Amino acid sequence: MTALDLADPVAVVGTGTIGQGIAQVALVAGHPVRLYDAVPGRAQAAAEAIGARLDRLVEKDRLTGADRDAARTRLSPAESLAELADSHLVVEAVLERLDVKQQLLRELEEIVTDDCLLATNTSSLSVTAIGGALRNPGRFVGLHFFNPAPLLPLVEVVSGFATDVTSATRAYETARAWGKTPVACADTPGFIVNRIARPFYAEAFAVYEAQAADPATIDAVLRESGGFKMGAFELTDLIGQDVNESVTRSVWEAFFQDVRFTPSLAQRRLVESGRHGRKTGRGWYAYGDDAERPEPHTAEKAQPPAYVVAEGDLGPAAELLPLIREASIQVREDEEDNGTRLVLPGGGQLALADGQTSVEFRDVVYFDLALDYRKATRIALSASQDTRPGTLAEAIGLFQALGKDVSVIGDVPGSIVARTVARIIDLAHDAVTKGVATEEDIDTAMRLGVNYPLGPFEWSRKLGKTWAHDLLEELHLRDPSGRYAPSLALYRHAYASDKREGTP
Prior knowledge:
With 504 residues, this protein is an alpha/beta fold. It has helices at 17-29, 42-59, 65-74, 98-111, 127-131, 165-177, 193-196, 198-209, 215-224, 232-239, 241-254, 265-272, 320-326, 389-401, 417-433, 439-449, 456-463, 467-478, 488-495; strands spanning 10-13, 33-36, 75-77, 89-92, 117-120, 140-145, 154-159, 181-186, 307-311, 330-334, 341-343, 349-352, 364-367, 378-382, 405-409. It is 41% helix and 13% strand. It has an 8-stranded mixed sheet, with helices on both faces. Helix 1 packs across helix 2 (42-59) and helix 15 (417-433) crosses helix 18 (467-478). Residues 354-413 form the 3-hydroxybutyryl-CoA dehydrogenase reduced Rossmann-fold domain.
């Protein structure tokens, strides 16, 4: 099944920000586009707003004047649903309420032809449930664009329980013809992105609730060590605390209150207080002309050690060894297998976060995972109250000698980046095993939908087969609520041999 022909009219119902964006995408691709909104005058206003954005594209040399003029002639507001009768695709982008969407689609089904593709842009409701109101749910599909639709490339093409393959394929190919990057997924809570992204927020909030670090420090570590474009606190302020918390709660409830998706009490209090982020002038941070952005905690300058003893290859942190040598710090390699760690001159140990805590051992400092230790500009260290001050000072001095700012956080298992990445990897493996999407589509969705530096499976291959499972297993021992229990999918990935004994 091929994409819609450019001569085929496309209709968008609901002319808010996302509806206008979808209409603009279809329009610039070359389709005749009709806009409808239940509120009189809104469709006309939306058409004018889209026209103004086309003007700006011309000013920026992203669209020719001739193409803009042609697009304007193809765009028309509709005063009634009946005017959408000859549409080949209708995308609804109305209020996120099941009853409202079902009623609208029932009305549309009576108006459009039998071969018209019907689509919803819902981000939080079940595509199957919405389509359940239709006589022919086979032609109904989810087309989840990300806001702003003209700029963000990702489209999740969601097949409901009754969606037929022909309809899903046509929607997929149409999105691709519009210059988007579609990914196919099954109709499960959160689809791909909003399902797998939950730990990015949840683990940052958990570290904060444990009083291990403040928002500014956690955000800085996620950006400067984890490679994320924004930290969880600043990103949710941008999204809107009410919106982000609502999505988390929706996914949690849809999964029958699965503990892996439990909302944050701290975020709930923020929402209840009306501190919704940038749009209200205050969220985790204050906004406004006179607002001061808090600085992350950064350790004072410390003396680097003269040498370190490397026991084991440091696993995902192996690239630290050449960096240490480049900083003119001697690396003595111990041939005995005593684990994977660095031993400091004072006898203390420095180890990559593995889900254990410093207080469980004598004189151990944990350092966080980094996307790229050479490029990272900040590293989080965690130590207990029993860690010798000299050991912590040597650890701080070591990373400072490598050109890193150091943030010392509380003794939380899994640090910040490590626990976050491990949980994202786990949810991704679980999603593939349950038929939500392919590995390739999940990686694409997380990179394009939420700007992750790597997709979960790219990260998993980089870190090693057993890394995420082993870290989560240690976290689960320390928090047996089930939140960190490794999925069966991750266990199989970690410990299934590449070739079973007795097989050719």
